[in-house]
Write the structure tokens for this entry.
Amino acid sequence: MSSEENMRVIRTWVDAINRNDIETELSCWQPDGEFHVISTDSTFKGIEQIKRAGEVSASYVALQPVEGRKQISNLFATAEWGCVEYHTDATVTGPVKIKDVEIIPKGVTRTTKQLVCVIFHFRGGKFDVGREYFDTSTYARQLGLSPTMVAELFSSFGSESKSQVK
């Protein structure tokens, strides 16, 4: 695929996430795709795990206006690789629980601002590998969490444990 076509796939993915359109988001992935969130060491293998992660993530920001979601600041692609950098401004309202432990109490609202970078490898016009990078310390501090709790939050999205990933 051309770099322009690959950039279109990335834009489609970001736009779908911003609309909570999980089916369009998934259409950008190969069935055996693997999405690794480097900052939390969470890996989602295959469409079902990526879908589950998307659904959980969307549930946290479902009422967030699109202007506060993923706003692309940099985007480039080659015939094989692509990269998108975006800013997020999100408001998260509790209760939010990790493994039955309430980490944001009911009625408490926290706001986060993040800069995120995602690198993709393309196969057949779709992502087969994605790697997301962001600063977990800033994210944790803004949510009032420890970095360990942030990692547990992302693993609760349905990723494989580190020991299962080869």
Q: What stands out?
A: The beta strands are 29-37, 42-45, 71-77, 81-93, 96-98, 101-104, 109-123, 126-133. Residues 161-166 have pLDDT under 50 and may be disordered.
